[in-house]
Amino acid sequence: MCGIIGVTGDGNALGVIFEGLRRLEYRGYDSAGVALVDGASLWRRRAADGTHSVDDLIGSADEVPEASRTGIGHTRWATHGGPTTENAHPHVDCSGQLALVHNGIIENHAELRGPLEERGHVFASQTDTEVLVHLLEEELAGGVGLAEGLRRALAGVRGAFSVVVLSADQPDVIVAARRSVPLLAAVGDGTGFVASDISALLGRADRFFAIEDDQVAAVGPGTLEVTTLAGEPVEPTSVVVDPGWDVEAAQKAGYDDFMTKEIHEQPRAVADTLLDRWGPGKDLVIDELRVPPEDLRAVDKVVVVACGSSYHAGMVAKYAIERWARLPTEVEIASELRYRDPVLHERTLVVGVSQSGETLDTLEALREARRSGAPTVIVSNVVHATMAREADGVLYTRAGPEVSVASTKCHVAQIVALDLLALVLAQWRGTMGPAAVAAEFDGLRRLPSLVDEALGRAKDVDAVAEALAGARDYFFLGRNIGYPVALEGALKLKEISYLRAEGYPAGELKHGPLALVEPGVVVVAVLDPLQDKMRSNIAEASARGATVVVVAADGEDVTGLSDHVLRVPRVDDPILAPVVTVVPLQLLAYALARRLGNDVDRPRNLAKTVTVE
Ligand code: F6R
User: Fold this and answer.
1) Are residues 407 and 552 in the same domain?
2) pTM attached to this predicted model
3) 365 is in which domain, residue-wise?
4) Pick from 291, 298, 344, 450: CA 20 to 30 A from residue 207's CA?
């Protein structure tokens, strides 16, 4: 969702903000804006030009106030109010002396706005955000400082926010606050920063801090003061930057786009996620898991919660946990779990899966689980993320920064991490003996080279993409462990090509959706080595005129089965196959999207790290 950055004490404040916005652009790109303290007043520029907003903003930065050392910036993913310049942040108060950027949703904005208008405030946007700057304006009129003003302004606000404000009347401070939406502060030598994401601040400072829920941070040149919303001083939570996350890791490194780069980083992501997991006692050890073995032994059910591609990784885990650890496993869409009345208790292990560790739906589902007394574990790619801090245990995917909105390397790393969790559960519960655990772990260790081999066949995928050019309707079919792969293939295609693509369990096709199959429809079928029944389902689609593409392991006889074949290296244990079979589907989505001229890294209407419900 939206990206925010604030800086104070830096002679190149605007440059820092622009560079930060470039690094945060993946969080939303409907519009972008910046405000700087310019002597006794504010200088503000905003731009709304879809995926080019940050470029346009930078291009429009004329007559830059040279002496400015304090400013805030924002890149927006629109929720309330269209992606227009008027709705772009920063928003200013009636005097034009105060500017504010916000990520999240103010749920009671409508009830707050009426009385503010009655008291004479003039609104310039349709956003939920603008009420905040007018509320703050009223509090500051009472003569309090910026931090106290923000604390008071937020008292009657419902919803999720990270918010950063600056005032031309108090030029050497930026003040920020957070509830449920990520926010970090950093302190350098005579400088201070806040941002939604550490990527915006890498290389700028040496000390980083997580601002927690309902905390307010006042950042000055080289200083940071954190209080609760009630004004109590608190010690800020220090965060350690993952050594794999440097500025270079977040660059395209010669690739055309981040998505190709990240697709090609998959062997490394899988290998790194497996590093150091085999202990000296010839057993699996997950250092960061933190949940004691006896608690895991007591578990009688697992619930996996996640969204999107992470949810699909969770679906793969269901097969592994049930098969290896013999634990009943449910996989839940995070936004659904929270608003049911789920049966969770101390013996239910709730596993969140999240690349960002910040997705609000998943965060709230985990919080619900903790309230129910269930032990929680998060599979996260971000070491300092909110979920990683709040959950009882963590399992890190070590994929490095994923910038492209469509998840690829994190998805495969999540599957591998969840396989590790399933094996640890099996080991501790005694449902698998040491030799069986070691054999599966060896199977996992072979995956990086198999993924590499699958990537080496990209040209075959391009040829199929060329043959499919013009098709607009896709079904992705799979059975058993191939089903989540089919769902993931369909999601990738939808996201970046904007083509209609439905993932379906192959056996269900005949119960309804087969009515949609006709010449021109493409059926992409993941041929799981165990599933002979798939062949009948493919034949049923073929008989109705569909163009069929089959994903099949080397050696699998597919004579007469399909119009096109995408071969993948064979994986000995089918339960580990999704990490390999998903690769041609990622490549296919990529090739089709590029043929359509789409921006694969920044698909329309989407954003990475979804911090609204
Ligand atoms: C799809 C994609 C999204 C995310 C989802 C969850 O390519 O990236 O569906 O998987 O928004 O995000 P995280 O994993 O950060 O919780």
Assistant:
1) no
2) 0.86
3) 253-445
4) 291
